[in-house]
């Protein structure tokens, strides 16, 4: 029995360490809930700050290595090296499939390459993992517009606005699409 105690102690310590490391992730959900509540009632100026705080939370994978892959993918996108961005972000989604922001960043890279099918597939992953991802919804709306599906685009844009009432560019898109639809009805 004594030989099992050190193993048991190490096992308990390992399990406690996992829960201790996971605790901030659970706390972030409460912080995000608070930010989303603030976002719904904020004015346009305050919403920009709140939106940035939400993006900051979404960008935390919980792993420095995964955060580095996200950073490298975003940097490659910013530099216009979309194949490298997709390579980094694919490594991220392979190693952290439950990290929604990895999928979202890769969807953006695919969209920028004109690869709409893979972009939509990645957006589906994002929304499965994070149904409140207003950025993914806005991106999906842009894709629907590009595919000449204005009714679907309008529906998705409105879903994004239900989450983030002051989402930049989306309000304009909704007004434009509604005006176009009204013009068609005449």
Automatic annotation (TrEMBL):
Keyword Ion transport: no
Any one annotated GO CC term: membrane
One GO-annotated biological process of the protein: post-translational protein targeting to endoplasmic reticulum membrane
Keyword field: Repeat, Signal, TPR repeat
One Pfam family per UniProt: TPR_16
TPR repeat residue numbers: 100-133, 134-167
GO MF terms, alphabetically ordered: molecular adaptor activity
Signal peptide as annotated in the record: 1-27
Matching InterPro entries: SGT (IPR047150), TPR-like_helical_dom_sf (IPR011990), TPR_rpt (IPR019734)
The protein, known as: Tetratricopeptide repeat protein
Organism in which the protein naturally occurs: Paragemmobacter straminiformis
Upper taxonomic lineage: Bacteria, Pseudomonadati, Pseudomonadota, Alphaproteobacteria, Rhodobacterales
